[in-house]
Every structure is written in C-alpha cells, then in structure tokens.
Design goal:
Layout (H helix, E strand, L loop, with lengths): L2 E2 L3 H17 L5 E7 L3 H16 L3 E7 L5 H13 L5 E4 L9 H5 L13 H6 L11 H12 L8 E5 L6 H10 L3 E5 L6 H6 L3 E4 L17 E4 L3 E2 L5 E2 L4 H7 L2 E2 L6 H22 L1
Parallel strand pairs: 1-11, 2-3, 2-4, 5-6, 5-7, 7-8, 8-11
Antiparallel strand pairs: 9-10
Bound molecules: 5,10-Methenyltetrahydrofolate.
5,10-Methenyltetrahydrofolate binds next to helix 2, strand 4, helix 6 and helix 10.
Family: Belongs to the tetrahydrofolate dehydrogenase/cyclohydrolase family.
Function: Catalyzes the oxidation of 5,10-methylenetetrahydrofolate to 5,10-methenyltetrahydrofolate and then the hydrolysis of 5,10-methenyltetrahydrofolate to 10-formyltetrahydrofolate.
EC number: 1.5.1.5, 3.5.4.9
C-alpha cells in the first residue's frame, strides 16, 4: 500500500492564510461565479468552491444564466462584473454550452480578476511564473501539493498525461520551470504505457476514468491524479484505477480528497490576496 498524498493538510495551510488575510481586509472579498445552464460538473464545482470560500469569510455572488444565453449577452454580463468594484474575482464555470466557445468567453475576463487563470495573459505567465501571478489554478494546485510533500522536481522524470489548455499546457510550463525532465502525452500518443512506466512521477489530467492502470506504472512511482470524473454510480473518481494502482506505487493522491481540495483552497487564498494587495497599494 502506498503513501496517501492527501489534499486536506495542503488545503488547511492555504485556508488559514486566506482567513487571516480576509479578517485583516477593510472590504469583504467577493467571487462572482458565472454558470450558464445546468451542467453537473459546473454545478458540482460551484457547490464545493462556494462552501470553501464562505468558510474563510469570502462572499460568493452566483450569476446563473439560461442555457440559451448568447455570446453578446454573456459578454455584457462579464463586462459589468469586470467593472464592478465590489467584485474581487470572477470564475466562469466550465463546461459551457457547446454554442459558447469557452476560450473566447474566458478571454473576456479582466486578467486581474481571472481567478482561474484562463485568459491568454495568465496562461502565458505560466512560462515564467511569479508568486503573485494568477497562473492557471488547477496547475498551480498540483505544484502546491508537490511542494507541500517535498517532492523534488529538479531532474525528476515526469510524465504528464493530458495537454488541455486549462490544465495540461500550463502545468507543463510550471514543471519545466522547475527543471523537471518532462514527457507530455495526449490522446494521439502511440505507446502511453511506455511513457508512464519510465516515469518517477506520473500526472494524469485527461477526464478519462481508469485511464491509468497498475501495469502502466513503476513500483516506486509517485502518482498525481488531477481528473474529476463521475462513475456510473455518480461517484467522484479520478483518471487513475485507484484500487489497483494504490496497491503498487510509492505514493498517490486520492480522489476525492486530493488535488480538488487543494484547488478550492488555492482559489480562496488567491481571492483574499487580490483584495489585500489592492488595499495595500
Ligand atoms: N472554470 C473552471 N475551472 C475549473 O477548475 C473547473 C471547472 N471550471 N469546472 C469543473 C471542473 C471540476 N473541478 C473541481 C475542482 C475541485 C473539486 C473538489 O473540490 N473536489 C473535492 C470534493 C468535492 C465533492 O466531494 O463533491 C475533492 O476532490 O476532495 C471538484 C471538481 C474544477 N473544474
């Protein structure tokens, strides 16, 4: 049985900092959460993120729009939030309806309020990140967890499975910035198992249930599961066949209770930081 790399203790440290900053601020930070339609992944994230934000004293303003909302209507809403002084940060929940191009919609955000780090400006900052940058949030959560458990990246053979614009690409940048020896795989990779077997650290961010099986990993590997999928029974599961892989490897993140918990805590810490910096400057 491997060591469990739990997200909870990582999240606790981030949430304690968020609580402290929020208590010191004159105004109350507020996150606008924009949801279009009723997708279950968007709803699930809205629910867990709202709970965590409110726990540390951050207000949440849900902005719930009809499934039929068009791009120009959504643009109006986002521009209003960009200019609203009481809104500290804006999160546009994905997936959006197919009629709305997600990358184009995220690009409407003021990069200074783009808490999830989806605008091209914030994506670009992942190439050479500074501590105050809003680099893509889930990618930053992976680094926060690796750092908390003092997992060395310099010279480590890291195989990243998944090259999405929201997670894989920025995460690749953050890993390269730490001098990892990086392999990036996607759905076109011809021999995925060869790439994962040779890795000291395997990171999955694909949205494919049970993509990573025990035969695909070395016994001394560290496995980081960024996936959030729902199985046939409606249970939250990652990309990794956890039952089998956790019997074999050195260390592994659980789902739930792994990267997801760090992501929501980092969301809270960042929001508190935006307001506290604005009040200081
Ligand atoms: N613009 C945008 N950015 C996202 O980052 C984004 C998104 N849209 N849409 C949906 C997916 C999914 N996602 C999750 C993050 C944390 C948990 C999370 O907090 N999970 C907890 C438990 C939650 C539970 O038990 O339901 C855990 O893993 O321990 C779940 C899912 C972010 N996503």
């Amino acid at each position: 049985m491997s060591k469990l790399l739990k997200g909870k203790p990582v999240a606790q440290a981030l949430l304690a900092h968020a609580t402290e900053l929020t208590a010191q601020s004159r105004a109350k930070p507020c996150v606008a959460m924009v949801r279009v339609g009723d997708d279950s992944a968007a709803l699930g994230y809205q629910r867990s993120a709202s709970k965590v934000l409110q726990q540390v004293g951050i207000e949440v303003q849900p902005v719930e729009l009809d499934q039929q909302t068009n791009l120009s209507q959504l643009k109006q809403t986002i521009e209003r939030l960009n200019h609203a002084p009481e809104i500290t940060a804006i999160l546009i929940l994905e997936p959006l309806p197919a009629s709305l191009p997600a990358a184009q919609v995220q690009e409407l955000l003021d990069p200074a309020k783009d808490i999830d780090g989806n605008t091209r400006v914030n994506l670009g900052r992942s190439v050479s990140p500074r501590p105050e940058d809003l680099v893509p949030l889930t990618a930053a959560a992976v680094l926060a967890l690796l750092d908390f458990y003092q997992i060395e990246l310099r010279g480590a053979r890291v195989t990243l499975v998944g090259d999405s614009l929201t997670v894989g690409r920025p995460l690749a940048n953050l890993l390269l910035d730490r001098s990892a020896t990086l392999t990036v795989c996607d759905s076109s990779t011809t021999d995925l198992a060869a790439a994962t077997r040779g890795a000291d650290i395997v990171i999955t961010a694909t949205g494919q249930l049970d993509l990573l099986t025990a035969e695909m990993v070395a016994a001394d590997a560290i496995v980081i599961d960024v996936g959030t999928n729902y199985d046939a029974a409606g249970k939250l599961r990652g990309d990794v066949d956890f039952a089998a892989v956790s019997q074999k490897v050195r260390a592994i993140t659980p789902v739930p209770g792994g990267i997801g918990a760090v992501t929501t805590a980092l969301l809270a810490e960042r929001t508190a930081q935006i307001l506290s910096r604005a009040e200081r400057d």
